[in-house]
Each structure stands twice: as structure tokens, then as C-alpha cells.
Amino acid sequence: MLDWDHNAYYHRLLLGHLPPDPSRVLDVGCGTGGFAAELAARAAHVDALDRSPEMIEQAAKRDLGNVSWVLGDVLTDPLPGRDYDGIFSICALHHMPLREVLPILSAALRPGGVLAAIALPRLDLFRESHVELAAAAGHRALGAAYLTRRRLNGGGGFFAKEPAHDAMPMVLNPPLTTREVAREAAVVLPGVRVRRLVFWRYLLTWEKPAG
Ligand SMILES: C[S@@+](CC[C@H](N)C(=O)[O-])C[C@H]1O[C@@H](n2cnc3c(N)ncnc32)[C@H](O)[C@@H]1O
Questions:
Q1: How many helices and strands (H and E) does the chain possess?
Q2: N- or C-end of the chain: fewer Cβ atoms within 10 A?
Q3: What domains can be seen in the chain, in order of their start residue?
Q4: What atom of ligand 1 comes closest to residue 52's alpha carbon?
Q5: Order of strands, edge to edge, in the sheet holding 109-119?
């Protein structure tokens, strides 16, 4: 009951990284398409990619005119487009080897385009115990506040988990700590920024150098 959707909580943070007037953006590992739908309200066209047929079937029910729901594996299938203004991903990068996926995403961006992703880090109590404590306390406090708001409003929202949430493909033991992600990503994306977010995620952002 007090649980809530940490991925949805970070949608706004990622949307803040959209470049102005984006014409074409990509969502990698779109799941049931909630974030792609938010991108579709801001970009002329969205390619939303997932390797799970069940996820793409669910997502396509959204029936949005400017979204292409694409069944495919980002590591092995050709991407639906290129020269993207922005590439986004929520909770999918830890499903795949970073050193394989980052060059693919980098190549698919236009110069000046932006990559912004959140994903799960491996637990790193040595460096991040203070964040873990804040996350545990904040999760309960915000969970109680969101539950109250939902009850008062007589409905959903306030980061309620969608019914299909538990059917999403998950990786419960992410392979890399935030620090390891930063180190691996820097090999492929010079100038990349990686930082730990409170609620059990990291944020990776990179702007492809112009020219
Ligand atoms: C935990 S779910 C997150 C879904 C969605 N982004 C969200 O925030 O609700 C991770 C998704 O990444 C997809 N995925 C994992 N590896 C992938 C790959 N190599 N290519 C495309 N999609 C992938 C999975 O099928 C799954 O739907």
C-alpha cells in the first residue's frame, strides 16, 4: 500500500533533459510505454523500443499517433531511426552490458543530441550508505503522503504503480555500482555525468559533441 513507482517519480527529471523542439527521440526499453507517452507530448516523433513482445503489445494500446512502438533488441537489431535529438531510457540499461549499448546509443544521436538514462546501481554500502538511509526513510514518508493524496482524490496518480508493473522484465541484481557505471561510461562517452539518485537509481547524462 505504501509502495510507489520510483521510475515514474523520475520522469520529470529526465524530461528536463529534452533538447528544445525535438523532432525525433528514442526510448530504450519502453516497457508499457508510460514515459514514451510523456515524450510524445513534447517531441514530434517518438520511437519506443522494447525486446519484450508482451510489453510492446501493452504499450501499443496507447494508440498515440506520433509514437512507433518497435519490438527489438537494442543490442542486436537495427534501431528504427538515427540522428536522434534525444535518447532516453528508464530502468533498462542495467539489463545489458554498458560497453556494448553505449556505443550504439552514441552513434544514433545527432551531434549536440542528448542521452539521459536512469537505471539501477548495485548496492554500494561503503560509499552510499547515507543515500540508502535517506531512501528508506523517504520511501516510507512519501509513500504515506502519496497514499493519503490518492485517498483524498478518490483515485490513482501520485506515482501509483500501474497494474502491469509486476509483469515487467526485471533484473534484481544490477551488475555495476554507480561508481563502476561512471567509470565504464567514461570510456565510451567522454564528459559523461553519472550521479546517484536517492531512490535506488543512478542518472547518466551525456551530450554528444557537436561536429
Ligand atoms: C524494468 S523494465 C522498465 C520499463 C519502462 N522503461 C518503465 O520505466 O516502466 C525494463 C525494460 O527493458 C527492456 N529491455 C531489457 N533489455 C533490452 C534490450 N536489450 N533491448 C530492448 N529492450 C530491453 C525489458 O524488456 C523491459 O521492458
A1: 7, 7
A2: C
A3: 6-121+171-206 (3.40.50.150)
A4: 25
A5: 67-71, 45-50, 24-28, 84-90, 109-119, 201-207, 193-197
Cell numbers at residue 177, please? Answer: 555500482
Counting from 1 in the atom list of ligand 1, the atom nearest the Cα of 77 is 20
**What are residue 84's DSSP bridge partners?**
109
Neighbours of 194 (CB within 10 A): 22
80: which 3 cell numbers? Answer: 528504427
C-beta of residue 196 within 8 angstroms of C-beta of residue 135? no
pLDDT digits (tens), the chain, 211 positions:
778 899 999 999 999 999 999 999 999 999 999 999 999 999 999 999 999 999 999 999 998 999 999 999 999 999 999 999 999 999 999 999 999 999 999 999 999 999 999 999 999 999 999 999 999 999 998 888 888 888 888 777 888 887 777 778 888 899 999 999 999 999 999 999 999 999 999 999 999 999 7
Looking at the CA of residue 8, tell me the nearest atom of ligand 1.
Answer: 8
Ligand 1 binding pocket mutation candidate from 15, 39, 55 (most atoms within 8 A of CB): 55
Beta strands in 77-188 (DSSP E): 84-90, 109-119
For cell 537505471, name the residue.
119
Residue 143, classified by CB atoms within 10 Å of its CB into exposed (0-12), middle (13-18) or buried (19+), is middle
